[in-house]
Each structure stands twice: as structure tokens, then as C-alpha cells.
Specification:
Number of helices: 15
Structural class: alpha+beta
Largest sheet: 11 strands, mixed
Oligomer: single chain
Number of strands: 25
Helix content: 25-40%
Distance between the termini: 25 Å
Low-confidence stretches: 1-22
Length: about 500
């Protein structure tokens, strides 16, 4: 069941070598020493976030928010290309409205934050600050859906939500975080299920082809599915430390919410029917995934397609005549070609600038000095593997675009190798426990489907079910826990 995508072994070796070289940014803890501290250092030193006075509420600084804006722009285009429209729902949910779907409210109750006063006056009813918006959309859909001609409803919103998490970490566990949440209604279960898988595949394609993050597409167990959903599907990624990150989810709700909210429509048969619902979402957690998938001991390594700055231009000996003028001309040429460019004209030394932009993960660095100008050339340095190439100024746009594509491909190959090398086909709970307590990774096993065995894996091996992959092997085997004959493949791991 091993899966390998063709890639550049040479690129992988160079990336490993780059991580092993003496780093320039000493204030970042080595990931091999303390991965959690390394992650926090990268988030703060690369100026992605800052801490606020409210625990669990982080400030997204301009550089971090710019990454989110690029993610948002690309995904929003994909959503609109598939017929979805953006809306804006209120941030407050009346308690009576939240209570209409029992399973849903019970799942979110521990994380709800409540507004009980309006100014100095106590409110007649508590209002929940939205942890998610299913109930708000359902109340709206009840008012606007009457006929099969009103379906489907394909809505999405970009907003923040609040979940009162007990612990917090930048991008991974925020009490308030930015996300998108799609909520759709369909005439039939078949159409809703098609929507659920369509959006899952959009997420997977985005992770792989934009963020250079390989994913495992799969279905969550009943224990791990979203509160109120009939089926939950996920894209799971492996981080540098071989832990799992649930990067995005897509849910099929059936008609459960529609029944709870009494949403009906008149079908083509002139009979009343309940519509079938989906929801799907990704959040700023993806930025945490980018950091932990691609980063190294010098800081960020950003995928070129979402990097706020794709190429930084560093003038060498810029006090000399003609250097800055040439650097500015090159910058304008690149901007005109649609590239995101920064020209650093500050008085900091070139060495300081090299370290700064390495830390910020800028994919490509262009060095331009007097000798380069004499020969009508420049030096290009890749962030992913440190490789330097000399390129002619004439034709530089094509050269840079080709290099940015090569950087993406190499980043994907390195990440995929990490996933492949650390996914193990295991047969016993002891083997899974040994993996989890040692190197870590994904355990791929057979599972009988019982909750008892799923709980046993958590209790005895310290892993949770990640997903049942959509691509099943179809082979028979024995459940990793009870030894019962079964055919279901499942992934286990330690997750963020």
C-alpha cells in the first residue's frame, strides 16, 4: 500500500543538507531540541502573530494576515467557480435557536462563550458568540426555501468564530480564529453527498497544488465526526514531527437539521420534503500546517503561491552608482509580470537581510551588485534548498517563474517523502504503541469498526483514529485490537 510520487531525490538531499547547515537565526530554537518551542519561535520571530491581553486571542500581524489573504483569495475563487456565493451571518446566536439541534449543541456547549448583558442591562435571553453557524444558516434557510426551484442554496462566509479552548497555541488552538464555513442545502441526499465530496476534493487539491502539503483523504469514524453530522470527511496531513493535522473537513448532515428547524420545500411531485444539508470549512490552522510541514531551523519556508513576498531583491554595495537604479528597474519588471516583489533598500547589511528573509520564508532571493550589473546578470538563491544560480537579467521573468514552480514541486516531494517514510502498515496494538511512543507517524491497520476497539487504541496505544482512507485496499485482515476478520483500512496517529 506504499505510494510514491515521482520527485527529485537531488532536491530532497539538498533540503536535508540545508536544514543541517549552520543556521543564521540563533533566536529560533532547533526543532530537534524542542519542536513546540521552535514552532512558537517561528510564529513570533517571523512576525506572524503577537499575544493579546486575552488568553487564547492572538493578534495576526501584517505578514501573517497577508498569508491568510492569499489563501482566502485562491480558495474564494475556487468556491465561486463552483457556484457558491458569499454571505455574512450575525455573530450572536440566541440560546433558544442553538438548542434546536440537540447533538450539535451538546458537542459545542463546553466551548461556548455567552453574552448576558447589553450595555448595563441584563438580557432576557443569553446569546452565544458563534462557535460555528449551522443554526443561523438553518433559521435563514427556513425563511427563503419554499420550492425545489429555490435549491440548491450554495452559501459560504468568511468570518471569525469563538471557541473557549482550555489551551491555546498560535494557529493551532485559538479561542478566536479566522475561517470560512460553507453551508449548502440540496433537494436530494445524492446531490448533498456530491457536494460534500466536491468540497473535500477542492480542499485536497488546494493543499497539494497550492500549499505543497500532501494529504490523506478519508472519512472520520462515528466517534470523531462533527456534532450533528451523518458523515464527516477530512484531509489529514503529516507534520515535521510526524504528528497529524486535520487541515480541513467536509460534512454531510442528511436532513437532521432541516427536521429540527422545520425547513421544507415543495418538490416536483407537489409533496413536502426536507432538504439535505452540508457544511465544510478550513481555517488559519492551515498556516500552522504550512509552518510545521515546510519550516526548518532558520524559520519559515513558504510555498510560492501564497507567500506575501515571492522574491526579495537585495542590492549589494548599493551605495555604488547605478546599483539601486538597476535594482528598482528589475523590481518593476517583475511586478509588471504579476510577481510579488520586495526591494530592500534599508541600511541593514546584506548578511542581516539574508537571515531576515530566510526566517520569513521568502521563496527566492535575488542578489544584484556592481559586478553583476557589468555582466547584465544576477544571483538567485532558493529558500527551499539553498541552491544558487546565476541568471541573465534579460529573460529574468521566465527564469524566476520556472524556479518558483520548481520550489513548489520540491517542497511537495520533501513533504510527501516524510509522509511516505513515516506511514507504517502495522498489525498489533503493541506495534502501534511502540510507533507512537517512539518515532511517531501514521499507523495504517485493519479495523473492525467497533467503538470499543477505537477507544482501546486511545487508551493503550495513545493514538486517535485519523480517518478511513477513501482509497481502500479491499484486502482482508485482522482488526488491530480484537483480531476479528475485517476489510476496513484506517489511519491512527497522535494529532494536534
Amino acid at each position: 500500500m506504499k505510494y510514491v510520487r515521482a520527485g527529485s531525490l537531488r532536491g530532497i538531499q539538498r533540503s536535508v543538507a540545508l536544514m543541517a547547515k549552520e543556521k543564521k537565526v540563533e533566536q529560533i530554537t532547533d526543532m530537534e531540541v524542542d519542536f513546540a518551542q521552535w514552532f512558537t519561535d517561528v510564529c513570533t520571530k517571523a512576525e506572524l502573530v503577537d499575544y493579546s491581553d486575552v488568553k487564547g486571542l492572538f493578534i495576526m500581524r501584517p505578514y501573517g494576515y497577508a498569508i491568510w489573504e492569499n489563501i482566502q483569495k485562491i480558495l474564494d475563487g475556487k468556491f465561486k467557480a463552483t457556484g457558491h456565493q458569499n454571505v455574512a451571518m450575525p455573530m450572536l446566536i440566541p440560546e433558544s435557536l442553538l438548542q434546536k439541534e440537540k447533538d450539535h449543541v451538546e458537542g459545542f456547549a463546553p466551548e461556548c462563550a455567552w453574552v448576558t448583558y447589553g450595555g448595563s442591562d441584563p438580557l432576557e435571553e443569553r446569546y452565544c458568540i458563534r462557535p460555528t453557524s449551522e443554526t443561523l444558516f438553518c433559521e435563514h434557510y427556513k425563511n427563503i426555501i419554499q420550492s425545489h426551484r429555490d435549491l440548491p442554496k450554495l452559501y459560504n462566509q468568511w468570518c471569525s468564530v469563538l471557541r473557549w479552548e482550555k489551551t491555546s497555541r498560535p494557529f493551532l488552538r485559538h479561542r478566536e480564529f479566522l475561517w470560512q464555513e460553507g453551508h449548502t442545502m440540496h433537494a436530494t441526499a445524492e446531490e448533498a453527498r456530491e457536494e460534500t465530496m466536491r468540497m473535500l476534493n477542492i480542499y485536497a487539491d488546494f493543499m497539494e497544488n497550492v500549499l505543497a502539503m500532501p494529504v490523506v483523504r478519508g472519512r472520520k469514524t462515528d466517534k470523531e465526526k462533527f456534532n450533528g453530522a451523518e458523515e464527516t470527511y477530512t484531509v489529514e496531513c503529516m507534520m515535521h514531527d510526524r504528528k497529524a493535522l486535520q487541515a480541513g473537513t467536509s460534512h454531510y448532515f442528511g436532513d437532521g437539521f432541516a427536521r429540527a428547524f422545520d425547513i421544507t420545500f415543495t418538490g416536483k411531485d407537489n409533496q413536502l420534503h426536507y432538504p439535505h444539508q452540508t457544511s465544510w470549512g478550513v481555517s488559519t490552522r492551515m498556516i500552522g500546517g504550512i509552518i510545521m510541514t515546510h519550516g526548518d531551523n532558520s524559520g519559515l519556508v513558504l510555498p510560492p503561491k501564497i507567500a506575501p513576498v515571492q522574491i526579495v531583491i537585495i542590492p549589494i554595495a548599493m551605495h555604488k552608482e547605478g546599483v539601486l537604479e538597476k535594482a528598482r528597474a528589475v523590481a518593476e519588471t517583475l511586478r509588471a509580470a504579476g510577481l510579488r516583489v520586495k526591494l530592500d533598500e534599508s541600511e541593514q547589511s546584506p548578511g542581516w537581510k539574508f537571515a531576515e528573509y530566510e526566517m520569513k520564508g521568502v521563496p527566492l532571493r535575488l542578489e544584484l551588485g556592481p559586478k553583476d550589473i557589468e555582466q547584465n546578470q544576477c544571483v538567485l538563491v532558493r529558500r527551499d534548498n539553498g541552491e544558487k544560480v546565476t541568471a541573465k537579467i534579460e529573460g529574468i521573468v521566465d527564469e524566476i517563474k520556472a524556479l518558483l514552480d520548481a520550489i513548489h514541486d520540491n517542497m511537495y516531494t520533501v513533504a510527501e517523502k516524510n509522509l511516505e517514510d513515516n506511514t507504517f502498515d502495522l498489525k498489533t496494538i503493541d506495534e502501534v504503541k511502540e510507533m507512537a511512543s517512539g518515532r511517531g507517524g501514521f499507523a495504517r491497520t485493519k479495523w473492525c469498526g467497533s467503538l470499543e476497539c477505537e477507544l482501546k487504541m486511545k487508551e493503550q496505544a495513545g493514538v486517535s483514529s485519523r480517518c478511513m482512507p477513501l482509497k481502500q485496499s479491499g484486502t482482508a485482515g485482522k482488526c488491530v485490537c480484537c483480531g476479528k476478520e475485517c476489510t476496513t483500512d484506517i489511519y491512527w496517529g497522535v494529532a494536534y
